[in-house]
Amino acid sequence: MKTRSVPRTRWVQHTEAGETRTVPDRYTEDIPVPPRDWDHILLKAALTAAVAFTGVSVVWSAVSGGGLLATTATPWVAYPVALAYDAAWITCLILEWLARHDPDRAVLPRRLGYAALAIVMVVIYAHGHLADQRVAGIAGAAISLIAKVLWSLVLGRFSYELPTLTREWVRVSRAEIGAELALTQERRQLDRMRGQSLALQAATRTTPMPATPPVATPATPTVAPAAQPAGLPPAATPTHPPRNTQPPPARRTQRRRTTRRATPVPRPATPPQPGPATLPPPPPNQIPPGATLLPVICPPRSTAAPATPIPPAAQHTAAHPATASTGPVERVAAAAAPAVAPVRSAELLLTVADVARLRGVKPGTVRSWVNRGKLTPAPESSDGRNVFRPEAVAALDNPTATPPVAPSQPGPMEGGYA
């Protein structure tokens, strides 16, 4: 058995002077040499010969076909066209090579290849016949035939015959994969066509837009008015003032002034006195059976503050008319009567911030006035928040004046005898 030497390298541990290092070690290894594969060498030689004969055949057929066609056309056109004869049978030969494992599919390319080769051979012989060189024409045609035969033998060497069931399995698999590939290509074509259609519709606007269905508006249930009990006047229907449809006037930008103006104390305006209001009747389901309904007239409630402070004695007299007389009998009778809280009209009350803004001082100054007794808060103050009546604030301008005392509910001993 033949061998051949092959140089190789390996890494080994080597120690010198007590130090170990890894160093490369080069050596030669003999390996057996397999015998020559003469089959493969000869097959490659046959393939090379087929390629060489094909090249010679193409050149000779191009010269012969070009010379024949040059009698009726210019040479630069005739010779390139003559190559089409050889390109035809070579293309059929390539298709036969691709179908070498399926004899049924290789039949048609083989037949068309021989037909194209026959046309090439006729053209070559015709050129030699016109040149009175029939032998040269036959020899040239034989070169193309030999090239075709060599290729057929090489194809037979590289093709393998498959069993019937294996061939059918390959055919079915090829059909399924081909169907998937065809569907993919068709989908791509359909997507391209759909995109072109949408682009054309968007450009021309020929397709009407789909109509938007009307949105159903829920009907508002109508509530019937409650039945009006007999014997009561009709309730007044509230009326709303008409809305102002004109646009609001444009705001004017004013420059801020650095100097602060003294804000005058506004005088409480007397609003118009409303008429007597009639209470609406209660709902029908809350009226006890057999009850007699009578309209209740409420006195008007005034929101204006009194112009001058009312003395406590006058307030007691107005709240308790029975104590107006100076007789002791009347006073004792009024004291024995149940105390009724006086009904006071709504008054304008000012907060600490309002008083500070009106007087031009800080809120802390107003609180100090309250602590020193200079300013008396109103009894409506609650939760630690003081409110003041306008007359108490106005009394700050006259320090000698006595600030008004907050009214309270009169007791049995107020305004009477001690």
List the main descriptive attributes of the protein structure presented here.
418 residues, mainly alpha, Multidrug-efflux Transporter Regulator, Chain: A, Domain 2, two-stranded antiparallel sheet, 6 strands, 45% helix, 9% strand, disordered C terminus
Write structural notes for this entry.
With 418 residues, this protein is mainly alpha-helical. Among the domains are: 3-32, no CATH class; 38-164; 347-406, Multidrug-efflux Transporter Regulator, Chain: A, Domain 2 (Orthogonal Bundle), CATH 1.10.1660. The protein is 45% helix and 9% strand. It contains ten helices and six strands. The strands form three sheets. The chain has a two-stranded antiparallel ribbon. The protein has a two-stranded antiparallel ribbon with strand order 3-4. The chain has a two-stranded antiparallel sheet with strand order 5-6. A hairpin with a 2-residue loop joins strand 1 (3-16) and strand 2. Helix 1 crosses helix 3. Mean pLDDT is 73; it is low at 284-288, 291-300, 302-308, 312-330, 332-346 and 406-418.
